[in-house]
Amino acid sequence: MLGLMENSILLTVVFSTFTAQTLKSLIILVLDRKLILNRLIETGGMPSSHSATVASLATSMGLVYGWNSPFFTISMVLAGVVIHDATGVRRAAGRHAEILNDITKELAHLFAHGYEPRVLKTLLGHTYPQAVAGTILGIGIAYAVFR
Q1: Cα 66 to chain center, whole Å?
Q2: Domain carrying residue 40
Q3: pLDDT tens, residue order, the chain (147 aa)
Q4: Count of the separate structural domains present in the chain
Q5: 97 part of a folded domain
Q6: Is there a domain that residue 108 lies in?
Q7: First vs last Cα of the chain: how many Å apart?
Q8: Which DSSP string corresponds to 92-146?
Q9: Whole-angstrom Cα distance, residue 108 to residue 116?
């Protein structure tokens, strides 16, 4: 366990994730004047913690092992897949959940008495600006730690 606490790349990545998640709550606090602590553990929103996490990982690997290393290559491919998924599939799933929630409300009278349909989570993915902000955050934190 002590070895994990000495792993500067892992600690940088965890710090990037934590920072992005904290910023989500702070942004909501400033803009909406609401303290929503659940945002610390939820997906979606500004900035993308997914993007911050994988961008921090890839940047850290490049800075520590070199930009031509297999570690950077693997991390960069992973980052591309995660960011693409967050802005594509997961974002589309969130839109589908919004539509299904609307349909469920409209057709509520058709459900059996006492049936309470569960509202689907809609904040799943990220917009491109959210992903870019998370990516910049992750890269910035990695540079701050390793430079």
Answers
A1: 26
A2: 2-88+125-146
A3: 667 778 899 999 999 999 999 998 888 888 888 877 777 777 777 888 899 999 999 999 999 999 999 999 999 999 999 998 888 777 777 777 778 777 777 777 766 666 676 776 666 677 888 889 999 999 999 999 998
A4: 1
A5: no
A6: no
A7: 26
A8: HHHHHHHHHHHHHHHTGGGSPTT--PPPPP---S--HHHHHHHHHHHHHHHHHHH
A9: 9
